[in-house]
Batch of 2 targets.
Target 1
Amino acid sequence: MSLTKKNSGWISLLFFIGALSACVPLAVYAYLGTFSRYLADDYCASTYLYTSQNIVEATLRAYSLWGNSYSRLMFSQLIELGGVDGIRVMAGVELAIWATLLTWMFVALGKLLQIHVPKVGYVWLACMAIALSLYQTSALYQVLFWRTGLIPYSLPLLWFIGIAAFFIRYVEKPYEKSRAVWFGIVFTVLIFFAGGLSETTSGMLVGIMFVAVALAWWTKRLHQRRDVLTFLVAGLITAIVAISITAASPGTSNRLGRIMRQEPIYNPIELGGQVILYTSQFLLETTKSYPTLIVVALAVSFGVVFLALGTSQKDGAFIQASYLRMALIVIPVAIFIVIGFSYAPSAFVRTFPAARARYASHFVFMLGLMIEGGVLGMLASQARSIVNEKWVQVAVALLLVALIVHPIRATPNVYALHYGYQTFAQQWDERDALIRQAVANGETDLVVVQLDAPGGIGEYKNNPKDWINRCVARFYGLNSIIAP
């Protein structure tokens, strides 16, 4: 037995330190979230909730007039229960749940595939996947600190991960009819609500389910579970229904009527070509812009899996090498398909996705790279003549030590954002207090100071008839409000 096998506790300690380092930037992001405030569409969503008898009525009104995401207001309502405090804690709560669910998914997948990795290693991978994707986006404030952006562009990822973990746990156990019935109902309901958060992530969900169905059908001789394929097909149909409801919204027609300068692409061949073009452009630009992050994603997952399997009593050979080599080809194809489906709504209206709409693609790309790195680690761990060499294990351990430093080095740049965010939050609080005092004094038409919102998000200005101004006025119970 090698030296590292005798000291497997040292490996767990290394993974623990790595997990802590990856959690540091996430903790800073959570801190930055305390400077979040109501902005732009937030006021409109809140007024829909305030002026409706219940959440169903609010959702139907929004669906008919402007919004097309039938699940979004339910989460707005949940955050709204805390008022401004709900806005302030939403990023931190999301990050905590996100890391937990992703860890759960990794653990469940590891059990299914009989991969023996310490749970703390999965925590490291989960936190790194989230942090690496957040480093890449140019729309950080919009997808994490703005309620109207967080709910449709980053929150759905939590749903997808949770659904995946839930499904893997089901597959892990033998088939039972009673269990299958309740699982099928819950699984379908979860997919339906996940598909109602935005057209971008709804398209991604269709892509995920399409890939899942294809893989389940392709590998059916390995698992011999008809119920697995049945549930996935039902999930795909549900995801298609969800995006169809989104597309059929009167709110969608209203928005497209204002922003479209050309006819949408109805030709499926032309649409497919545009999707391939946009997806290829995204992957090429991301690879050119963030080569270091790509290497980190591959290296950390490779190192964790290789070291865990190489220093355990198991030989890591449960999955045949031929299947693992095939997975190395399938994973990039799956990533391309999933991202492509998420870009289909934008391609339909001939527009390259905005930065906030591309965020889910960044996360899928990083997650896919980590899975790819894990597969490489499994392949390498099966070469026992190499694994048993002490210098190989030490080299991989040193690689992981170097990777521990990466999140720590990046954290100061993340923390530096707090200067602008904090200034805006203080100014917003002061203006909010003045407005509420004026309303309490019986004033109905106000002129207040204009602020510059972070993240390129719109602010109300000098036109009382502008949609943001009107939403703000209704939010505070005013006739009009302007900010020259």
Target 2
Amino acid sequence: MINKTLLTASFLLTLGFSQAQNADQSLSNDSLTKLLNVVKHDVDNLKNIKVSGWIQAQMQWADSNGVANFDGGNFAPNSDKRFMIRRGRVKFTYNQKNSQYVMQINGTERGLNLVEIYGVYTEPWLKSISLTAGVMNRPFGFEIAQSSVDRESPERSRYTQILMPNERDLGAKLSYLAPAESPLHGLRIDAGMYNGQGVNVPGTTTTAGYPANTFPTTGVNEFDFQKDFIGRLSYYRGFKNDKVKIGLGASHYNGGYICQSNKVYKDLAANAAGYNDWKAADTSTIAYKGKIAPRVYTGVEAFFSISTPVGTTTLRGEYIMGTQPGTSTSSASPSTLPGSTTIYIRQFNGFYAYFIQRIAKTKHEVLVKFEAYDPNTKISGKDMLGTGKNSFTGADIKYTQLGIGYNYYLDPHVKFMLHYNIITNETTGDGTTGISGFTKDLKDNILTLRMTYRF
């Protein structure tokens, strides 16, 4: 394509040169050379630009109308099935010798939004250390960094979407990637500072069980002085001509957001009725207002893949635990300062595990994904008795999810996905009395049929 462009440009310039000679014999070979150099310079710049993208068009069926979910956002109140464009991405990358510029845009029926925009500079000597600044993926774990076009299941795990909504944040990071000739090849270290509020995307940031003011706006919204540290150490490498691949990693997040008042709950104790309940923090010696409620996560990851005559078998998983501030009805990380000034500090954990099997050398792939998220590990469902006995809400309930999927890779551009998520929530009380709406398992399983086209 580039060669054709140069030939066309040369022909036009030659034609123009011939005509100019007929009209004015003063046009010199030097002038033609300068014009050709301009064309070559412009073409060389175009060669540095890469444009890619993908669309994920899908049909979904839910067990009941108005299902709140993490499979693309809540269903409309009177709907249990829908067509939607889950993602419509266009990504522009401009590469120079030691630098890179990236901008990605998302367009769907729900609107247009900026996904990421950042610049990268890599030092020219070892070419192993780089600085990235802008809106980018948070460097925590494997799942966040894996592109949605490559992911084997429809969405990232529930805990990822709650703790780090839409994966990206505004900040800067330093990265070290061991060079290919190094004995440490496969080692990567990322460390960065971020605003902490993340990026809100219209129509897909779930509000399941959360107050409307948790995610009211789009974009990146800084609302306090706190900056959050995120670091990841990982080692991913292939052996035996990549027939065997392994990966290990550990990540840490340390940040938080500002307390708007001294109303803080972080421990449990028996209430006046004798039931386990939230206990207000003692403010006689500690003032919380104006200080930071801690947001601290630690995660580990593991990956193993092997290619045999029966196909490529992949095992992959992550585990996360830590401390998360929230409101009485939400454990989500907010993109704007919550309307409630009372903070609840919960201990949580979560994990996911994949089994993925590519069938021989065919285009067929099957998978099983199991995941769990417990937003409050200090209390179990049977002890959540509801209004009048204690004050726990849907934000304290544990969820597990079993996903069963099939992928068909038609060609390098087209992938078809069929995935069924069986979602189970912790039931409260004795099954008849408890938190309203959570005395039994909700009817919220979701079937997704998706076509992805990439270019």
